[in-house]
Amino acid sequence: MPHPLPPRPAKIPKVIEQLGRTRTDDYAWMKDDNWQAVLRDPALVKGEVREHLTAENAYVAALLAPTEALQATLVSEMRGRIKEDDASVPAPDGPFEYFRRYEPGAQHPRRLRRPRGGGPEAVLLDEEARGEGLAYYRAALGEHSPDHRLYAWAEDTQGAEFYRIFVRDLASGEILPDVIESAYGDFAFSPDSAWLYWIWRDEKARPAKVFRRPARGGDDVLIYEEADEGMFLGVGLTAERSHVLIQAQNQETSEAWLIPGADPVAAPILAEPRREGVRYSLDRWDGRWIIRTNDDSAVDFKVMVCDEAIPRRAAWRDLLPHQPGRLIAGLAPFKGRLARLERENAVDRLVVLESGGPEQAIAFDEEAYALSLEPGFEYDTATLRFVYQSPTTPRQWIEYDMSSGARIVRKTQEIPSGHAPERYRTRRIYAMAPDGAEIPITVLMLADQPLDGSAPLLLSGYGAYGIAEEATFSTRVLSLVDRGWISAIAHVRGGSDKGWGWFLDGRKLKKKNSFIDFIACAERLIEEGFGRAGRIAAYGGSAGGLLVGAVANMRPDLWGAVIAAVPFVDVLNTMSDASLPLTPPEWPEWGDPLTDPVAYDYIASYSPYDNVTPQPYPAMLATAGLSDPRVTWWEPEKWIARLREATTSGKPVMLKVNMEAGHGGASGRFDFLKEIALDYAFAIWAIEGRTG
Predict the structure, then answer these.
(1) Where are the alpha helices (DSSP H) in 482-534?
(2) Are 495 and 327 a contacting pair, CB within 8 Å?
(3) How far apart are CA 89 and CA 682, in angstroms?
(4) How would residue 365 be classed by pLDDT, with cut points 50, 70 and 90?
(5) Catalytic residue at 322?
(6) Which is catalytic among the residues 496, 542, 576, 627?
């Protein structure tokens, strides 16, 4: 039976002149000039784009039709590893404890509370009921007021990340009528529970202003407006609930403003003016300010303290000096103690500092693992909660007594279909980049897997924004590993896996290091028998899609399949369009090709869309979301069109578009499995030639 014919979209050349350079974009028409409206209502997308995206989806469905039974099996396996009536460990706060629970079959959880120690439950938010009948539903931040009388949450029903903020009166159970529109999703109650601070998202989908309003509804008062369209905004409370903090930052510069909790209607006070290249974040610890900063060339950050009411830089003094290679990734202040999360050589570590006393390091034995802090609501407590996991070890929610050093496992992730960690093995190996950088690789495989190059290999990576690619437990990837695949994570430069310097060495004019590292990891894995060229599936999402898109151009011979989820692949055009939501905020990450010829030329030399050439590409699958405000749909749409025209291998090049979701894909916990199953079935089909 012949393969279905792929869509062949029209080529309408558009010549772009910029900084004395000229480029031609045959598929620029795929961008909808009305894209802001489309994000809010996908039905408004222009007809020729909808027709083409529909044709792309039909092509994927036809080509992968033989794998439908395999996809269904994969979904069944992955769903079988999810505890359907799962619940979080309750987090105490004064007289109550707060938690989430799924009902069997539900796509979304309920958010609940009960009296501390147990008792009758009250429903704060039933996400399943709120999302009923909707193609997409996501409740982001949800917070109770400090006096426990109100509950607020941010809700997105499109995937475009324009949130509505609702407030519920917990005495009556009623949702208050004055709903906040066009919100960024971040908000905070004042310490006295009388006020709500929230962030407005402008027509370009950027956080632009901070407003204050009565917590039960009323007039909004503008309290902060960000003049730099390249800054992100956040708002929250300090750990001891003494101040409201407004944070403005991008990838390299930040600034904080504070509002005393005793005077919640006061104008925000600038803590320390922004200085380009200096990042700092504030919190309160035992009556003083604690500052995490990279100032004074502290590349991997240090911790400072300040006793002044307004923490100006001149009054900061070192508490934990900078130690190169030891990234201070996060802080959690408690009364009399300070917990911190560190990362060194792609290994996490937790350390607790006694105020004026010694430190306690919390140690673990596995070769590769991931830790995350869960500081909770209470400041005056000796209990530190964190999550431990590894590729072979399901998540464990652990409570650590900072007084005695005792650990209690409060919950272990349950795998209903069964999981035997001893069946699997996690390894940490290293690849050497041409410049001598040593790149960690985390490997998951069956314990008895022969290392003779026969196993298909899934190699994933990210490498951007200083985000570490953690060695976490995935119930989904086990469906490949159980079929004899090996799964590996390449901890490439651009992430913070080996410190903030690791990030700095993989961005802007060093971005190609990320791609070179990924290729070096593939070659090292081949050398050690974990796979072989042509039987590796490269997997990356968002900025990780840029990574796999670039290496597909550079070394197509290595890959049997490339899966690029919502991939950032049209880098030069996107970074040249200042109207897009993330363009000005991301110039520090990629460079500004509108004003800087060096940045233009460098981006042009690696941007996946601009470097597609006639060569034998592997089978390719890209995914997109029509409501995605981060990586707009036309990026993968254009890229796939150009790849399909250029490839000489005869292997399929495909685009799957979720017409009802954004950057994160389907919102329901089970619906999302269908998207992963499609990815995995494609990889099995492309590399093994199997459909079942």
Answers:
(1) 500-504, 512-527
(2) no
(3) 37
(4) confident
(5) no
(6) 542
Q: How far apart are CA 236 and CA 146, in angstroms?
A: 12
Q: What is the pLDDT of residue 2?
A: 65
Half-sphere exposure of 112 (CA within 13 A, CB side): 21
Residue type, 99: F
507 secondary structure, DSSP code: S
In tens, the pLDDT along 39-95 reads 888 999 999 999 999 999 999 999 999 999 999 999 999 999 999 999 999 999 999
Q: How far apart are CA 294 and CA 254, in angstroms?
A: 11
Q: What is the pLDDT of residue 616?
A: 98
Q: How many CB atoms lie within 10 A of CB 466?
A: 21
Cα dihedral sign for 112, 116, 118, 119? negative
Identified catalytic residue from 243, 322, 491, 663: 663
Query: Of 300, 517, 628, 679, which is the active-site residue?
Result: 628
Tokens of 350: 């937790």
Taking residues 125-143, what's their average pLDDT? 95
Asked if residues 558 and 519 have their Cβ atoms less than 8 Å apart, the reply is yes
Mean pLDDT of the chain: 96
The β-bridge relationship of strands 195-201 and 180-189 is: antiparallel
Contact by Cβ (8 Å): 40, 202: no
Residues in the chain: 692
Q: Which is nearest to 632 in space by CA: 57, 115, 204, 79? A: 204
Report how far residue 649's alpha carbon sits from residue 545's, in angstroms, rounded to the nearest whole number.
21
Q: Which residue has the tokens 């369009």?
A: 577
| Helix/strand/coil for 248 | strand
Tokens of 123: 């429903």
443 in helix, strand or coil? Answer: strand
